[in-house]
Amino acid sequence: MLWIWWYIMLNNSILNIYIWNIKQNKLALIFILTNAYRSTFPVLHYNNTCMFQYCSPFIERSLSTAAELAFTCQIINWLNITGIRRIINIFSIIVAEICCWKGIITGLSYWHVLEESLWCFNAILLIIWLDSNSIKPDSIQKIIYKHKYKYIIKSVIYCYIFYMLIYDIPLYINRPNVVKGEILTCKHITHDINVWYNNLVWMTGYFTLGSWASLLIS
b/e map of 74-93 (b: 16 or more CB within 10 Å)? Predict the structure, then answer.
């Protein structure tokens, strides 16, 4: 079962890279390539578990940090968020990335709870910006901000918030703390579906829907 998932993710990555080659957005490239790497060499950071021998949790997380900041900037640019609102959105994600690193290094799960809560908070801010009509389309983006598209954008964000509150944040709240010795190499190598199962939900959504969203707004 795990290998079927891995094969689907591999084909998804190949397709995404092909589509990116048509659009050529630099921020999307960072996110797409990182997702391709992460789905091909998946890592469970909380217990340093990998599918393959030569993976590195440190490298995987370093790439993820750059990719998530790039994706955040891509969304903000696409929505044409400027001024103090832009600073708040970017700053909240930077703090989330710091919390993620703290969680990975210490093994304390509450850092990941804070990280995911900040991502959820950032999504709520986007809803507020959209509802306040403070986001103004430029000449290129006018068609995107027709009334019906605004509701589509909001619906997607609401679904994301619902997922974070119902599944993702509780996942980390219920996850026990793990004593971490180091994060440079994988401690466990396993293909046991039972080890990976609880994480395949967010991984599948992240590596597919996340990549598709990045390509869509490229």
Answer: bbbebbbbeeebbeebbeeb
Q: Quick check: 16 and 32 in contact, CB under 8 A?
A: yes
164-207 pLDDT per residue, tens: 999 999 989 998 888 777 777 888 899 999 999 888 988 999 99
In angstroms, the CA 109 to CA 136 distance is 39
User: Distance between CA 94 and CA 87 in Å, rounded?
Assistant: 10
Own/partner contacts of 209-215, CB < 8 Å, gap of 24 or more, are: 210/31, 210/35, 210/71, 211/12, 211/13, 211/16, 211/31, 211/32, 211/35, 212/16, 213/156, 214/25, 214/27, 214/28, 214/31, 214/32, 214/71, 214/74, 215/16, 215/19, 215/20, 215/23, 215/28, 215/32
pLDDT tens across 27-73, in order?
999 999 999 999 999 999 888 899 998 888 899 999 999 999 999 99
Residue extents of the structural domains in the chain: 54-177+201-218
Which stretches of 19-178 are assigned E, i.e. beta strand?
43-44, 49-50
Residue 218: which of 18, 71, 33 has the closest Cα?
Answer: 71
pTM, two decimal places = 0.87
140's tokens = 């290129």
Cβ atoms 104, 145 nearer than 8 A: no
**């700053």: which residue's tokens?**
91
Mean pLDDT of the chain: 88
